Structures are given as structure tokens and as C-alpha cells.
């Protein structure tokens, strides 16, 4: 999600990372191509915050995210308490959680079946 405010480019990104075994996304707040805040993990409503000085005034930038397992997270971006933009965040690497779940399921099946049955199927 991207927004422009007083000549500043504000961007909020999401990514499935190894930190949470690809099962929870991590969100970042970028202002003018500089990462300001990062949060994530198995939380329903993570929050990103920053204090920005512009023209001698200090503004509080806040992004409230509603993330249900990283599926189409909704973000409300506000500056100084006023809503600037409300939109969905595009989360990168969307296949990672499915790959991890597939690997865990395949490993569980192999452990349940046992090595002798697998050895007989391969030979």
C-alpha cells in the first residue's frame, strides 16, 4: 500500500519470512525509501508507528493493520490522528505458508507409514 503525504512517500509492505516459519507475515513501514518500523508474527492487529518532523512540526504516523493469517490484510493509515488512506496490503511470497504446510504434511505421512513401506515402494 502506498500513499503520498506532504511530499513524502509512505509505503506499507508485507512479506512471509522465515522468522515465523513462513506461517505469519511481517509488515514494514517505509517513509521515503527508509524503513522506519517493522512488526509481525501471529497477531490479529499489528500496529506500525513513526514520528516524522516536517516543516518544524512533529507528526505521528500510525498504520493499524487487520491481519487474519495474512489473508488480504486491511490497513488504515493515519497521520496526526486523521485517516489518510485505507486499503489492502499486498503480501509478498504468498506461496511460502502453503509450501511449509505441504512439507509438514508429507513428513508426517512418511513418519506414519514407516521406512519399511517406503523402502518397498521405492524398490
Tell me what you see in this structure:
The structure is a single chain. The N and C termini lie far apart (53 Å). The longest helix is centred in the last third of the chain and has 18 residues, at 96-113. The strands form 2 sheets. Strands 1, 2, 3, 4 and 9 form a 5-stranded mixed β-sheet that branches. The model has no long low-confidence stretch (mean pLDDT 89). This protein is an alpha+beta fold. The chain is built from 2 helices and 9 strands. It has one domain.
Question: What percentage of residues falls in helices of 4 or more residues?
Answer: 10-25%
Mean pLDDT: 89
Proportion of residues in extended strands: over 45%
Major sheet: 5 strands, mixed
Shape: rod-shaped
Number of strands: 9
By secondary-structure content and strand pairing, the structural class works out as: alpha+beta
Give the helices and strands, then pairings.
Layout: E1 2-5, E2 8-16, E3 25-31, E4 34-40, E5 47-54, E6 57-66, E7 74-79, E8 82-88, E9 91-92, H1 96-113, H2 115-122
Parallel strand pairs: 2-9
Antiparallel strand pairs: 1-2, 2-3, 3-4, 5-6, 6-7, 7-8
Keywords: Membrane, Transmembrane, Transmembrane helix
Transmembrane segments: 94-113
Identify the notable features of this structure and list them briefly.
four-stranded antiparallel sheet; 123 residues; five-stranded mixed sheet; transmembrane helix; alpha+beta; 2 helices; 21% helix; rod-shaped; single chain
